[in-house]
DNA sequence: CTTTAAGTAGACCGACTGTTCTAGTGAGGA
DNA sequence: TCCTCACTAGAACAGTCGGTCTACTTAAAG
């Protein structure tokens, strides 16, 4: 079926087919992302996603195996988009001060926390709703957090040496700020995380008088 | 009905009635606490709670208005128990070093994280499953976190002066450690939080030699 | 025009869900 | 003994859920 080899003169068959499929699919994915995050995965019924995205029921089950597949796509999408945003934010902060790297990471979180639908880290929410330790939520949460930690560590390592424990402390501050902002809005958790992170970086990574080994 | 004033010679009527009601109710509350936390609030059906606690359907709806009421009782119970555990742990750590106070708080979290059913902070999980900003989950989460922060601040203030921002940084570390331990098990997030907290306390609250220009 | 394929609209199904209700049980107090 | 009251066991109910299926439309390709 796939190698009948007769439509080689129309090179858009493969790619264009997905392009044509995109509009409806993209609407579906966008509203799924919005609703699954803002109103919860279990709380959001398939019907609500279909209505808000103006997509027919058959389209969903034609493109995805079911709701579980749509959830997995939602998580992957979140991972890709958030990681891209963090990457550009960190790359954009190319000052000499390593603390600016951590600030850039927190800025991404803080700007998101100022949107009305903010409820905290999407992966923490997903794991809370899908307890299975071997399920997609746990998988993507681990993947995402590990990737962000690696990104942060790499960006800092370009400037100073970063012990593993310090990197973990910064991750704890990042996740804690996201969670605290969700649970206790109006408490300036991001600023508190920034202050702690800056102290951690300036004292643990940049001793005031550089020892001979640096 | 309530003031017929004839059974004053049996003073156990009021209290004992609740005592007699306790066994079944306590079984119900204990298994509800266990299941709602470990398997999720929405995921756990009423029937499963009833079966595992060996309690009849009528008992639930006789003592509670419904599942929502049971959930509220679960959250209140978690708040009371956790707050008590944290209180005794902090009181028990009556050394001179203020960092020991924060260590005691983290010890409570870490010991819970070593139980098999650990999934992170129960209130963060509840809020994730019940997005309503004015619902019981958001209420108890705010109440609980605020209480713990106040407890921590008070215990530290007994030893050193504690700026608001530093207290918030410590809360971010605490919540972040609980969340990180849930999302990335085996990463020693508590030790990282302890290190960051100790640094924060010893430098921000106890400057070794108060330099004029620091 | 015919074919192929994707999308739409909506009825429909089985499997749950939380909740109510009825009938019966067993212990303690009057 | 009678009565009360908490509890048990289980049927039954309305509602919602995810998922399947059918009939129709649209549009590009031959």
Automatic annotation (TrEMBL), chains A, B:
Pfam families: TetR_N (PF00440). It comes from the Bacteria. Gene3D superfamilies: Tetracycline Repressor, domain 2 (1.10.357.10). InterPro entries: Homeodomain-like_sf, HTH-type_TetR-like_transc_reg, HTH_TetR, Tet_transcr_reg_TetR-rel_C_sf. Residues 45-64 bind DNA. Keywords: DNA-binding. The keyword Signal does not apply. GO terms for biological process: regulation of DNA-templated transcription. Residues 1-16 have a biased composition (Polar residues). Residues 1-23 are annotated as: Disordered. The keyword Cell cycle does not apply. Residues 22-82 form the HTH tetR-type domain. GO terms for molecular function: DNA binding. PANTHER family: HTH-TYPE TRANSCRIPTIONAL REGULATOR RUTR, HTH-TYPE TRANSCRIPTIONAL REPRESSOR BDCR. This is TetR/AcrR family transcriptional regulator. It comes from Streptomyces doudnae.
